[in-house]
Amino acid sequence: MSRYAANMEVVEPGISRLRGIALYELQDPIVMLANKDFEGGEITVRDLLSKLREAEGYLREAISQLIYEPMNSPEGHLARVAMQDLKNLRYSIQHAEKLVSETETRKSSTGSIGSAKKRGGGRKKKT
C-alpha cells in the first residue's frame, strides 16, 4: 500500500465516500504509467504484473468504499464504473500472467537446448 493510501486510512477511517474516490483516482495513473512503461520497454512483464496487482488492490478498496452510495448519485455511478474497470483490469492481469508464463517457458526450453549442445547432445553430423 502506498504512503498516500495509508495516510487516507488514518484521515478517513472506515467507510468513506472521499476515500473511495481518492483510491479510484490513485489506481488509474498507476495502470496507465505501468502500461506506458511496459510498452516503452522500461519495465519487465513481471514489473507490469506487480503494478497491475497493486492497482487492483486500490480499485477493490475503492469499490468497497463506494458500493454503499445510492446508485443514482455521482459516487454510485463511480462505483459501477469502478466495477467495470476492475473487470477490465483483471483481464489485463490474466494477460500479463500469461506473458510471464510464456517468458518462463521460453527461458527454460532455451536453457535445456543450450545445455544439450554444450554437452555434445543434439544432432549428429553425417560422415
TrEMBL record:
Name of the protein this chain belongs to: Uncharacterized protein
Record field: compositional bias (Basic residues): 116-127
Listed InterPro entries: SET_SmydA-8
Annotated region (Disordered), positions in chain: 99-127
